[in-house]
Design brief:
Blueprint lengths: L1 E6 H9 L3 E4 L9 H12 L6 E5 L7 E2 L14 E5 L1 H12 L3 E3 L2 E3 L3 E4 L19 H5 L3 H10 L2 H12 L3 E3 L2 H4 L4 E3 H6 L3 H7 L8 H14 L5 E7 L5 H15 L4 H12 L3 H14 L6 H13 L12 H25 L12 H12 L6 H16 L8 H13 L4 H12 L17 H12 L22 E5 L3 H4 L5 H4 L5 E5 H7 L4 H12 L2 H4 L15 H20 L2
Parallel strand pairs: 2-5, 3-11
Antiparallel strand pairs: 1-11, 2-4, 3-5, 6-7, 8-9, 8-10, 12-13
Helix pairs in contact: 1-3, 11-12, 12-14, 14-15, 14-16, 15-16, 16-18, 17-19, 18-19
Amino acid sequence: MAKGEATVGELIDMIRRREIELPEMQRRYVWKSTKVRDLLDSLYRGYPSGAILLWDTDEQVATQVFAVGQESPGIHKSKLLLDGQQRLTSLSAVLRGEPISVRGRRRPIELLFNLDHPEDLSEVTEVDDDENDEFASTSSDEGEQGDDDDAMDPSIQSDIQIQLESMTFIVKSSKMASRPNWIDVSEVFSNDDNVELIRGAGVTSMDDPRFKLYNDRLNRLRKVKQYTYRLDILERSLSYEEVAEIFVRVNSLGVKLRGSDLALAQVTARWRGSLAIFQDYSDNCAKQGFRLDTGHHLRTAVAIASSQCKFKAVSNLKTDEIKDAWTKTIRSTDFALNFMKSNCEITSPALLSSPLMVTSIAYFANKRDFVISPEEAAELRRYILIANAKGRYSRASSESVLDQDLGILRDGGGISLLFDRLISQVGRIEIQPGDLIGRNQRSSLFKMMFIAFKSKGAQDWKTSVEISLDHGGQQDSLQFHHIFPKAYLKGIVPAREIDDLANLAFISATTNNWIRAKSPETYIPQFVSDHGTAMFDNQCIPLEMNLLTRDSYHDFLAERRIRIAAELNSFLAV
């Protein structure tokens, strides 16, 4: 194995000129902005940042595009990047000031640099705003968030400000970007004029002691481009299969890739061009509202081929077996998604407690050769909804749980045996009010609550448009709303209790913004006067005035839990 060196700037240019490309065995770009922030902080301080693993080959290898822009292929022979994709893609996006493209969406990685940062290493305390689950990001409580910021306790605001000012880099926010000592990192690399940047920070005289400090720090930041990475370059004599094995071992030792990523690398090594096939199908599912990771579809193929879902089975499958299983996976997954959308009103993966449910249904349909009686369909629907509400595949050892179910179906067992296994796991299938205590929007019961309310015809409180995850336009987009708004309870009720499932309802962005921090005893009677009580009944919201006061918040939660549990049990027929 050859050794070499290259600076960050040189590596970024090589990616731009397509002198470095990605083999199809690589996973997609997955880093969050906070991870990029921490990488840049390490390079700024000159800390070690690992090596870059490349393969210099004459072999024709299927590739995939970087998440950052590249020019048309040039005359130089490309090297294939095996380890370092996340780091180099991140640095390319920030230093070039270009957005990344992931899953058809383009977004910038925007970081701010603190010209007044302390010299000592600060503890990373910034909240990662990207850590929302899929349902929450689809239905965020934006209308109240702005109001909450205004109502925040000054002492809390002060603590947060102190934490941020102790950091060198943060993910950009409009509030911090408005402060003169915080500079956009991409702007620093696109503008060589330190004087202009320093003037923008409020320093107008070179005699100001801050001028030299800021100038030195801007120059130090630009030296990130001169940070030198060690290159490990695999020789041309290695076969693709050997390189794929090296890729798997390197990433297994570092525990940087999921099992699906490693399995995908093994499959693409034997079935050239298969990644594009998998991605095309994943994109087709996304167009129908069901975007699932390519690795999930591969798991379904593994299940169909081997009757067990763990990715380690890939090494025992022949290429022809994988190809045959993939053909069956497409038909089986199409059935599973169509059945869930049409029969179960599960119209988005955001409503699933686990995507492993798709694999389970797909395997069942394939084993039955897609011949299912009306009675079985009704039983399957009921099982899916109850298993989803109970989080059948979202608890510990989810793969083992799925393997148990695949074993039942493999041996000819039906839905009744799956029910028996579910009951042995959760104890009972009916939902009790106590099951809702302490649950929030990430709970499987919250997802089931949405499905049940939508089935009942729940509507927005202003427009009377039925609730849906598919609404177009910002005004009608679905959000979950705190019936007792956050700002109305802040400082009185702990945050985790404010986010209680029993305090959440589904309305449009427009209605949410109108309500903002109004008390329920103020705004609910107004809606009732204009539109009647049905829209609140359909979301199990008590209307007794003695329950809508701030002092009665916990009594309100208790009463609504009773009503939600009764509604879910009725919907699930338990």
